Amino acid sequence: VQLQASGGGLVQAGGSLRLSCQASGSTFSSYNMGWFRQAPGKEREFVAAISWSGARTFYADSVKGRFTISRDNAENTVYLQMNSLKPEDTAVYYCAAATNVMPNTLERVEYWGKGTQVTVSQ
Fold it and tell me: Do 92 and 23 meet the contact criterion of CB atoms below 8 Å apart?
């Protein structure tokens, strides 16, 4: 499966952004999907994940209550709605896919998309 993330940009603290990840090349509904992020000088970290049906979601503690992951299997797209953004959310955001496990650790990810930059200013 090929993954293409979009929707990043520059936003002020307290603002919102919605990231999208378009999948192609395979049956999207076969994959559990996730979002990770990597800030400069830091390791890539888990942000959120969603099961193939959308019935289960998981979040990093740092984004709970502010970010929402969702998917539209008809559109082959997974979304990350980010509200109440903070400067520490600044990072390159990557979408990820896995088949039989939830992609909530680096080791579980089978496919990566190219990242999209999110910058949150003070």
Answer: no
Sign, CA dihedral 17-28-2-99, equals: positive
Helix (H/G/I), strand (E/B), else coil: 107: helix
Strands laid side by side in the 17-24 sheet? 2-6, 17-24, 77-82, 67-72
pLDDT at 25 over 90: no
Show Cβ contacts of residue 70 under 8 Å, excluding neighbours closer than 6 positions: 50, 54, 78, 79, 81
Q: What is the average per-residue pLDDT within 101-107? A: 96
Percent of the chain with pLDDT over 90: 98
